[in-house]
Amino acid sequence: MNSDGLPLLAVTIPLAGVAGLFVGSFLNVVVYRTPLGLSVAAPRSFCPTCQRQLRWWENVPVVSWALLRGRCRTCRQPISMRYPLVELATGGIFALVTWGWRGTIVSAAYCALAAGMVAVGLIEYGGQRAPLSVAAVAVGLGQAIILVGAGWQHHWRIVTGSLIGTVAALFIYGVLRSRDPACTDPRGHGRSALLLAGCWVGGLGLVPAAVGAGTWIVVFFLCTVGTWSATRQTSGAGAPGASPERTSHPVLSTPLVSAVAMAMVASLIAGG
Questions:
Q1: Are 228 and 253 within 8 A, CB to CB?
Q2: Which pLDDT does position 234 carry in this prediction?
Q3: What's the rounded Cα separation, in Å, for the pair 37 and 114?
Q4: Domain residue extents for the chain
Q5: Which of 44, 14, 223 is nearest to 121 (CA)?
Q6: pLDDT tens digits for 46-103?
Q7: Helix/strand/coil (H, E, C) string of the chain?
Q8: Is the peptide bond before 61 cis (omega within 30 degrees of 0)?
Q9: How far apart are CA 133 and CA 243, in angstroms?
Q10: 197-231, pLDDT tens digit by residue?
Q11: d(CA 199, CA 146)
């Protein structure tokens, strides 16, 4: 990396990390409300137990959870530690993405795609189906930023690659949906994540895309084998016919999501 870019990264990486904390807070709302068909815009955040709307200072990422000692101020019911962990993880991911893209405008596009992947993954790992709208919004926002940011700097390879990757992912998604419209096969759960991956790897170039594809194949295979092994052990222990979703770890029983997430990380590192 050229030393001329270090002062810029010294500013943009921390800023991206802080922005990621707040986006992570919003993703917690998306993960909770979207599967229930609720609006993510209104009403304001509320306690799911006592239904009290939270004050602004109760929504500060990580800090509010720590100050409240992980409990609702009114009903004293525990607030899952997942909330601050998602915020911290999203902040870390945003910082990593910004590092990978040298703090350019395109970093914001890839942060949007990463946020979409976090939301889809958490919903799917929670045993629910992620609505297509979650991935579609992230891809639309990411593609728009790529078009403006990369196009402004005349990096048309990134623009063209991301568009081609998105179109290819849409085709694969359509094939999977036509074969299994109700998504009854666990191996297809989270297939909307393919749209995120297509836009993501398409703009990185051929070598990172190849690394991502190889990672996807390996992780998908390992997850499938792990699910089969766990299901077989459970069935042998006296639970014949048990479904993989009930006998395997969520990461294993949702192989498509796990494989896409790892492929996106591997391709970003390869591109960096």
A1: no
A2: 60
A3: 22
A4: 1-103, 131-272
A5: 223
A6: 888 888 888 888 889 999 999 998 898 889 899 899 999 999 999 999 999 999 898 9
A7: CCHHHHHHHHHHHHHHHHHHHHHHHHHHHHHHHHHHCCCCCCCCCECCCCCCECCHHHCCCCHHHHHCCCECCCCCCECCCHHHHHHHHHHHHHHHHHHHCCCCCHHHHHHHHHHHHHHHHHHHHCCCCCCHHHHHHHHHHHHHHHHHHHHHCCCHHHHHHHHHHHHHHHHHHHHHHHHCCCCCCHHHCCCCHHHHHHHHHHCCCHHHHHHHHHHHHHHHHHHHHHHHHHHHHHHHCCCCCCCHHHHCCHHHHCHHHHHHHHHHHHHHHHHC
A8: no
A9: 27
A10: 999 999 998 999 999 999 999 999 998 888 777 66
A11: 10
Which of these, 10, 13, 203, 158, lies nearest to 96 by C-alpha position? 13
Burial of 178 (0-12, 13-18, 19+ CB in 10 A): exposed
CA gyration radius for the chain? 20
Strand partners, 78: 71
Note the pTM of the prediction, 2 decimals: 0.88
Token pair belonging to 21 = 């904390």
Token look-up 């993960």 returns 31
Which residue type sits at 69?
R
